[in-house]
Each structure stands twice: as C-alpha cells, then as structure tokens.
Write a structure and sequence with these properties.
alpha+beta, Arc Repressor Mutant, subunit A, 2 domains, 3-stranded antiparallel sheet, 7 helices, about 60% helix
Amino acid sequence: MSNDHLKLDKQLCFPLYAASNLLVKVYRPLLEPLGLTYSQYLVMLVLWERDSVSVGDLGHCLYLDSGTLTPLLKRMENSGFINRQRDPNDERRVLVSLTTKGLEIKELAVNIPNKLSEQLNISDIGKLRGEIQSLVQLLVKAI
C-alpha cells in the first residue's frame, strides 16, 4: 500500500495554510500605515459594517473563540480603535464598538481591497472568494 496520500503536496490543508500565511504577509505593508495587524483588520471590517457587536457575535463572524478574541480586543482598545463595555441589558455580554479613531481609519482602509487585487493580479477575485467561501461552509458543517 502506497503512502502517496500522505505527501504534503497531496494535502488540501497545506495549500490553504500556505496561502493564508502568505496573504497575511501581503496585507502587512498595506495595514502598517493604519496601525493594524491582519487580525485587527478583520475585526475592523466587521465593526465598519455594524455600529456595535457583541464579542460572541464577532467571534461567530470571524470563526474565533473568545480566548483568542479577548486579548486581540484588549490590544485594539489600548490602541484606541475600539471600546468594550458590558451590555446594559445583559451583563454577561460584552459589546464592542468603534471609537472616533476607529471610524477615521476606515477612510484610509477603503483602497486596501483594490491595492491587494492589483498586487495579486487575479482577474476574477470574486470567483476565487466564492469558491473559498463554499469550502468554509463545508468545513463549518464538518465540525
């Protein structure tokens, strides 16, 4: 019996892992002027869509657990991008909202998707995103 199926280049996980790591590296110089890491950028994308979101809902959107998200949000709060406060209607929930600084950097971030698309020179980024989103949904079902 051959172990070909155990070779790294035969795995689905590895090209996804490598692409993710490399994509974060491509984003880094685009995000540095904003003072954001890639993970913080993802949080900001959610918050720019909504006025306020609970930590639980944010984790659901980003597929992150609260143990990963909480230290990230603390750093963002210390940097002045977000506020965290207990929900007055439910003390168990923590709500995350943008500060003025967090709102202001949206204008600086507006060109990031275009810059990324130009840099990668992918003709149909929407199609690629759709295929990857389909894979994400399959993986969510598998968990």
